[in-house]
Design a protein that fits this description.
The complex is a heterotetramer, with 2 copies of chain A (about 150 residues) and 2 copies of chain B (about 80 residues).
Chain A lengths: L1 E5 L5 H10 L8 E8 L3 E2 L2 E10 L3 H17 L1 E9 L1 E3 L4 E9 L2 H18 L2 E7 L4 E3 L13
Parallel strand pairs in A: 1-5
Antiparallel strand pairs in A: 2-7, 3-4, 4-6, 4-8, 5-7, 8-9
Chain B lengths: L2 E5 L1 H7 L3 E4 L7 H8 L10 E4 L2 E2 L11 E5 L6
Chain lengths: ~150, ~80, ~150, ~80
């Protein structure tokens, strides 16, 4: 299991490959991955860069607790959660959640549960810079796919 | 001994600082800590509070050495 | 969009990276990926290899129709579906489904819908070789996470 | 003109062949095609049928040049 807050850019597909390489081939049958990426538009405005702030310590502690809980509840073999902080530009990955399990039901459910938790509970905040140079804090995240948190 | 009060994101901008160390005399709850630090600004309706890095509420009791953090709704992921 | 049946091994993370490279950076905010991988166990038995058969033509036609339908229904920016055929061994990827969209709800829903359709409708069949050398056809797939097909 | 009949996976093993070309005389439905090709084996209860690569049913009408395929439940993905 790997839970990390990163201060520099990362390639999510390379990180998934690396994490998977530590698993025994043939042990897992399903991998579900979510990657959140910075868009160049939000609420109708062009966004040129974004600064991600977090509550160091609380973030990592909560994500670790969550990952352990989800692993126990859903028969999960491994989990990777990476979240970027600092200043980023459109196209940069913000978050990676990867889950490995024997069967697909567990992988999908665990991946969505972690993403929804992360969006609603983990102490990260986004500040956008608009094309006119003004900064604004993002006030709320968009809704999730359906209620997956128990 | 002191209590560490922290502010994050738009709340830090609004109160004009990110961290403050206060003595706990007369401060019993997270709400008291806010009032002590930023008496001129009422607590925003959507503000969240964490005590020692766990979500809590404004009327929770705080004690010597605690870290009390105030922040807006989270927007990560 | 890329829909392909492959007769040789593929690296799903490299293929996702390649597909994503063709998209405009900043245009997508969410990527949901599912990879199904051959396990070394099934129904309590050790499996040493597997042969995947398909109905060439019907498979590609149905998957293309599905992908176009899902793209229209869910505001999806891009889709990749790769499915292996031929003889494989434990640890080999069988299927990759990757979906790019602006927001996460659409990506998750579209990815799961494609995977469930693929498992229940696409004409692929698996034959397992057990550790004693005997071959057996897989009779049915395991259940999905929940009802996602409309 | 002929009808192409195809069998896949465990059904191909069971009937002992993968493809057969038949004349359409007296063959009106997919069921007729099966009976013509494999008169000694009843159609398995879980068998599926596709006509010209679209899912269909055993009583669907087939015509000159059609491709009729019989196969077990799918297990890909």
């Amino acid at each position: 299991m790997r839970i990390e807050v990163l201060e520099s850019a990362f390639d999510p597909w390379r990180e998934v490959f690396k994490q998977e390489s530590s698993l025994s081939p043939g042990s897992f049958g399903a991998t579900a991955v979510f990657v959140g990426t910075m868009r160049d538009m939000n609420e109708g405005d062009t966004v040129t860069q974004m600064t991600l702030e977090h509550y160091a310590g609380m973030t990592e502690g909560h994500l670790s607790q969550l990952a352990q809980q989800v692993q126990a509840d859903h028969e999960i073999l491994d989990i990777v959660i990476l979240h970027r902080v600092g200043t980023i530009t459109p196209g940069d990955p913000i978050v990676l959640v990867g889950v490995w399990s024997e069967h697909r039901a567990e992988a999908f459910e665990a991946c969505e549960k972690i993403v929804e938790y992360l969006k609603s509970q983990a102490p990260f905040w986004k500040k956008e810079r608009l094309s006119d140079g003004a900064d604004r804090w993002v006030e709320h995240n968009t809704a999730g796919p359906r209620q997956v948190l128990n | 001994m002191t209590i560490t009060v922290r502010f994050f994101a738009s709340l830090a901008d609004r109160v004009g600082r990110r961290e403050e160390l206060i003595s706990n005399e007369g401060i019993h709850t997270a709400r008291d800590a806010w009032m002590h630090c930023v008496s001129d600004i009422p607590i925003p309706g959507n503000a969240l509070v964490a005590i020692n890095q766990e979500y809590s509420d404004f009327d929770a009791t705080i004690k010597e050495g605690d870290e009390v953090a105030f922040f807006p709704p989270v927007t990560g992921g």
